[in-house]
Amino acid sequence: MLKRKWLAISAALAALSLLATACGSGGGSSAGGGSEGGSGTIKIGVTAPLSGDYASAGTDIVNAAKLAAEEINSNGGVLGKKIEIVPEDDQCDSQVGVQAAQKLMDEGVVAVAGGYCSSASIPETGVLAQKHIAFVADASTNPDLTEKNPGNVFRVIGRDDQQGPFAAKFMKEVLGAKKAAVIHDNTTYAKGLAEEAKKGLEENGVQVVFFDAITPGEKDYTSTLTRIKSLNPDVIYFTGYFAEGGILVKQSRELGITATFMGGDANQDPTLIATAGDKAEGMIITTAPLPQFLTGAQDFVNNYKSKYNQDPGPYSVYEYDCVKVVADAIQRANSTDPEKIVEALKQTKGYKGLTGDITFNEKGDRTGELYITTIVKDGKFTPYKKFENGQWVDIQ
Amino acid sequence: MGAFLQFLVNGLTVGSFYALVALGYTMIYGIIRLINFAHGDIFMVGAFIGWTALAAVAAWHLPAIVALAVVLLVAMLATGALGLVIERVAYQPLLKAPRLSILITALGASLALENGVMLKYGAGFQTYPHLLAGTGFNLAGAQVKYAQIGFFLLSLALMAGLYLFVHRTPVGAAMRALALDQDAARLMGIHVEGVIMLTFFLGSALAAAAGVMYGTYYTQINFMMGFLLGLRAFTAAVLGGIGNIPGAMVGGLLIGLLEAFSSGYVSGQWKDVIVFAVLILVLVVKPTGLFGERVVERM
Lengths: 396, 299
What we know:
Helix content of chain A is 46%, strand content 19%. Chain A contains 13 helices and 15 strands. Chain A has helices spanning 2-36, 55-74, 94-107, 118-129, 144-147, 160-173, 188-203, 222-231, 242-254, 270-276, 298-308, 316-333, 338-346; strands spanning 41-48, 82-89, 111-114, 134-137, 153-155, 179-184, 207-213, 235-238, 260-263, 284-287, 351-353, 356-358, 372-377, 380-388, 391-394. In chain A, the strands form three sheets. Chain A has an eight-stranded mixed beta sheet, with helices on both faces. In chain A, strand 13 and strand 14 form a beta hairpin. Chain B is 74% helix and 4% strand. Chain B is built from eleven helices and four strands. Chain B is globular. In chain B, 51% of the residues are buried. The A-B interface holds A 186, 212-215, 217-224, 226-227, 229-230, 243, 246-247, 250, 254-256, 271, 274-279 and B 2-3, 6-7, 10-11, 13-14, 124-125, 127, 130, 134, 136, 138, 143, 145, 214, 218-220, 222, 224-225, 228, 259-261, 263-265, 267-269, 271-272.
């Protein structure tokens, strides 16, 4: 009974989506003809979640893309034409994402700059690859995105398997750690990051004396921490989320553990400090640089605020760079042919973005160190150290 | 030795929270044979009422202990009253209905409480102010906090108070009579509905006390916190022998200790496996739970 109902619903949805694509292609062909005809605009698609749980993040991303396009257009555009941003809702869902990619192709976009959720981005890239349309990801960090690259994928943000080794390097070189404890919470993200960190620590000659999971949602981790205390590590790295991170750092200090406490990027949330109070002081987080920590992004933050009357989201600045990199590639390709844009993107070397220099490797990933550390100081996350030109430097 | 003592201290602290909540499950089951699935959420609401009250009394600049005592009392009364309302609205009309109906309304009450608190306070985390400085002393290598001792003693006092109330007062005698046989108790002139409401009031107030202590101790609360803790407390009640008051206390402390030792000596991931394996083992050997031998008189 239930099964039949679902069948009916999915059939209805399929029919609806067919209708929608049919309408989309009808409208898109004339617009597409316009861009090919020498006049009109160059269309860049943006896939992002514009409804559902992550709608606010998606809106931040589209806002940033539009801001980038406006700046390019006010400086004369690209190849004498204006850039037009075409947003499409992917709801962080693989099915909806595939349809969004299809719609964007029908709209005649020459490249796509977007991709918040890896789960939606990965199938989208497959659809776009059919017409060799470039996909430049702004926030999808899952390694598979570029590991299974059909040849058209680039990303300006780091990978989950880059953060782990970065954290390990920091523990070894800055903290001089000899023994480390790694805690995760058994979620896909946290476990993956913990395993990468463990691998990195062992490669750096740091002994991993503790590697285990806690159960998220609980409040008492003192027994696990007592065990860690008896192993006497120099540093503890927790790769789960901020709610548990706050409790862990608080309880470890109350048990008299003096080891440096570190957390992965999901710990960068004010709730952590509210939970742990002054016990959070000195905790170090590995994170992708947020706009407020990027010295070059101040103008962007101000422009964004004055235009949208709110602060940019954590990934707005990455989306801004995505659009700029695509525009740069179109300029260098001297063509709006998607295939030539992909070729130009592959040649991107040291493009000066707000998030730093952008160069893609053969997989499409960005090269260089993409993570920084922040430290809790006077009840606030403040920029701490980054790895630059082969050495660790303080961030001003 | 230090680690062993530490596990013992932590286990007793968590266990006393479980025991307080388990008492509510056991009392309500003892009287009307209902597994009150909303009880874990009543504990959660207690923590939120305490949080709101703490913010309200912050303006008076009371010493931390006094403020906490005031808030504890307010939260217990308010949550007790909420327990009354839930009983009146969701359970009393169904007391004569099949057991399944009342079980479903209990689930409904649970969801209503969770979502109500989420709408009022948001889905994120709220944090209690850091009232107790977290100071303590070193006992043979184990860190013991004054808050732990205080909360443990307070829990024991509340449990002892309840035990004395049930066994030494006429109202308590009425409660026990009702647990034995509702119709006979009514014939003896006992106000059955009144006693049932009082049971809900007491159970909810104890859960609220646990909620406020829990919030103060761990500083972090959210609308889903009652689920996991409620599950553990319910397990504690079953382990001790549901319907039996001393059983709930012992069951709560036992579950707390089992958790602390298994995550200390084995692994945090294996904790629940071990706790529930022990539960199954106990129930296989003794289906009525550890203290469940007095089947006739359940209080």
